[in-house]
Amino acid sequence: MVRVVVTYDRIRVEEKALQKAGENLGADVRLIDVKDSFIDITKGEVNPEVLKGDVIIQRCVGHFRSLYLTAIIDSVGIPVINSFYTTLICGDKLLTTLTLRRAGVPTPKTLVAFTRDGALKALEEVGYPAILKPVVGSWGRLVSLIKDVETAKVVLEHRELLHPLYQIFYVQEFIKKPDRDIRCFVVGEEAIAAIYRYAAPGEWRSNTALGGRAVKMEISDEVREVSIKAAKAVGAHVVGVDCLESERGLLVHELNSVTEFRNAAPATGVDIAKKIMEYAINLAKK
Amino acid sequence: MKVRCPDCEGEIKVPDDAIAGEIVSCPDCGQEFEVYFEGEELKLKQAETVKEDWGE
Predict the structure, then answer these.
(1) Which chain B residues are Cβ-neighbours of A259 within 8 angstroms?
(2) How many domains, chain B?
(3) Residue from A16, A208, A238 whose CB has the most chain B CBs within 10 Å, to mutate
(4) A183 and A253 share a domain?
């Protein structure tokens, strides 16, 4: 019986679905709350005992918890979905964009600056309106649509009061697109489901966490190809690939290594939890 | 099952198959709580608030 450990810091619809799917497939599924104990990282094997599994599905909602936990798990050689490297790259938009470009995956034009003045020049170069995003963070948090230089100065001033990470200014062209984006779910080398995410009224960001609406998308060849290529570029086992339909074709702007699928599963009729569990069980047997 | 909200004593409907770590929120005050068990007894404690690195 394959033992699948699911590490979490918060049980969501997804974690419960994964547990049920795993049990239905005959696996011994253990949900482990990482908030409950500590980990000895000098023992050369995962300790506490509870973290030991044939494969681990890493589901912490906190990025930095995920990053360090996957580093620990990688270091003792237990296969983990996803690895430290995948979590590191997907968790940082700048590293994601670099990795995608190297793999020949099209991305929105992106400029990086390290100071307020540099950022103002970058914004000038890319032209208003432009997008300014923190390199770490999601659910659309602090993702700013900057319409003019006055607004830019205000936003940049605020950023300078925050942690130095927020002075890594990641400036992106504003893609004129339909008021939606696409999330394609890749498991292994298969694009298993895709949705359109329509921005909620009065909101330009289409995150479902911000009330965006999920609608099934028939996976086009272009979305399939670009999503699998993006997943491979970051070595992901399971990943949500976010694409924009721009005038110059599909652009990938973000990857999510602990992807939510509570809206996508019912919208597409695909049992995403089951697909992930099947993949995890196979990974354990390798 | 019904549980008293630790903050405002409102009535929170907790699913019968609730498991430890699950999040429920109070319909009256909106606070989020995490389910935990002491022996057989289901209890609620303050859930972690959303942090800036949270999300998928």
Answers:
(1) 56
(2) 1
(3) A16
(4) yes
ipTM of the complex: 0.77
Residue A226 host element (H or E): helix A221-233
Q: d(Cα B29, Cα B9) in Å, to the nearest integer?
A: 9
Measured between CA atoms, the residue of chain B closest to residue A210 is B55
Instruction: Return d(Cα A169, Cα A150) in angstroms, integer.
Output: 17
Q: What is the Cα Rg of chain B in Å?
A: 12
Global confidence as pTM? 0.91
Structural domain including B31 reads 2-46
What is the mean pLDDT of each successive set of 10 residues along chain A, which is 286 residues long? Answer: 95 94 97 90 82 95 95 95 98 97 98 97 97 87 91 95 94 90 97 94 79 92 98 98 95 96 95 98 95
Q: What are the DSSP calls for A50-98, one per residue?
A: GG--SEEEE--SBHHHHHHHHHHHHHTT--EES-HHHHHHHT-HHHHHH
Q: What is the pLDDT of residue A47?
A: 77
Flag whether B52 is in a domain.
Answer: no
Residues of A in contact with B20 (CB under 8 A): 11, 33
Per-residue pLDDT tens digits for B8-28: 889 999 998 898 899 999 998
Three-class SS state of A255 = strand
Structure tokens at A130: 């432009």
Alpha-carbon torsion (A70, A74, A80, A81), positive or negative:
positive
CATH for A151: 3.30.1490.20
| Structural domain span for residue A36 | 3-82
